[in-house]
Amino acid sequence: MERHRISYLLLISFITLVGYSQDSELPGDNQGAYAFKLDYNVPESPAFAVLDANPTTIMRASTPQEIITQLASNFLSGNEVSPGLAFDFNPYFAFGGRLKSVKEYRNNYGKRFLANLQLSIATINSMDFPDDLLFSGGLRATLFDSKDLIFDEELGKDIDNALLPDTDPGPMNSDDAGTVVDNPALKQAYINAKTRYMEKAGGSLALGYAIAGRARDNSFKTDSIVTYRHQAWLVGQYDFGKSGMSINGMIMYRYEQTPQATDNDGFISGIALRKYGQKLILSAEAYHNSITESIDFGGYAEAYLIPSITLFVSLKKETNAITGDEDVILKPGIKWNFSQAKK
Amino acid sequence: MPKSNYCLIDPDGGSLKVRVTANNGIRSGSIFVLWELQNGKWEKKEKFNVITGDDGVDEFILLEKPNEIENDSLAWSINACSSIPNVLRGEFSITVIQDGKNRWTKQSSRLVPKCSDGKQLKFGNHVIFKHLINDNFSTSDLWKDTE
Questions:
Q1: What is chain A's mean pLDDT, rounded?
Q2: Is residue B5 a contact partner of residue B127, using CB atoms and an 8 Å limit?
């Protein structure tokens, strides 16, 4: 367990470094315990995907809503799979990129592309390689999203109206430092936006690349670190609107080196159907894996009961990379957005 | 009061325009009030709602003539939040413009909460208008006079 503590420590240090690259100080100290998030239809972490740590195989194509950190843990299942930690962030803003305005985001494809990049690093404990530390990195780009929330002009107007002060400043007003305060009208604006988002039909397209490696025998010497998997994928999504149904299609090229075969490559392609509710997302997927020459199925349920925390359970066929044995595994788990914990 | 809270204007120049900007997709809504000191009491003369919106910029023109606003205070209160998911910081500016010249500018880089969190950053300040004697008069000499 010691090596995993070390890897988490390294990852959390990196989180702290990048997370605070935009904020050398906190924007006020009066943060309430409750914070509303549009934690809905959030795309999967690319770094988790290459480690097969996501509960589903077919990924989503939507624009990232909120990217900081996801903790994926299967501790609820009580089986031998240990938790993993993925840190996702946007490199453009994290390293000083700027937008002129919301209008520039809407009108400038290049800036929008940069603003929606998702860079991801992760580490996980896997029984496939019990003596090694697994780590990964990935990049995901949204090519197109007709349901991008920033294009919701009604939300923009609602926010503007909510932001107008309700009292006039006095002649000697002097509050240059400023304070962060709650504004219930902003919460309501996003609740209304979420309803519109769910009822709107539209499509999105995203592509990604990720690489996974392992530190053999928990050693970080150069000759002990090997990459064992590369993958690149293209995923499309279409939401049907008021029915709350969504269809996703994905094609992924994967190259991997396993103990059984030094050079394996092939395509994983499939579709997923999702049913979105206010607090619950149900999903079923079917995909073909040309590496194992198999057609696999999976089921998935995701519940948003507490802001920033997602509970999920998946039922999925998995193949052990060492033994090649196939098992249908039930995985309950939790995803936690650390962006709230940081405050 | 810090010297930066004084704005030197030409009493014989054109109307004063005030421009507010917020970048990085940060949205802001604010109220600006022009106050005049009359018989030891501050009176409200003009009030403007300013919304930077999708463009990140908004402006208004003071109706009062420049030769009538010496020692008046322009005070503001701004609420702001970030509407772009990954943005935590942005730059704000308030500029007083007369005849195309920037008479006074206040810029600041601020951390702002996310609108989706239901939170806003509230901040404000004010500026006092002073008449510029002439364009060649040095600012430091003027401070000596005012202090």
A1: 78
A2: yes
What sign does the dihedral A198-A181-A18-A227 (CA atoms) show?
A: negative
Beta bridge partners of A146: none
Distance from CA of B63 to the nearest CA of A (A): 18
A98 and B23 within 8 Å at the Cβ level: the answer is: yes
Q: Å from A185 to nearest chain B CA?
A: 7
Where do we find the tokens 């092939």?
A266
pLDDT of residue A264 exceeding 90: no
* Neighboring chain B residues of A36 at a CB cutoff of 8 Å: 116-118
Lowest mean pLDDT among A3-17, A79-93, A159-173, A324-338: A3-17
pLDDT value, residue A263: 77
Share of chain A above pLDDT 90, in %: 40
Does residue A240 or residue A123 have the better pLDDT?
A240
Q: For the range A67-70, what are the long-range contacts, defined as Cβ-Cβ under 8 Å and sequence gap of 24 or more?
A: A67/A118, A67/B85, A67/B86, A68/A15, A68/A19, A68/A337, A68/A338, A68/A339, A68/A342, A69/A15, A69/A336, A69/A337, A69/A338, A69/A339, A70/A45, A70/A335, A70/A336, A70/A337, A70/A338
**Pairwise CB contact (< 8 Å): B25 & A162:** no
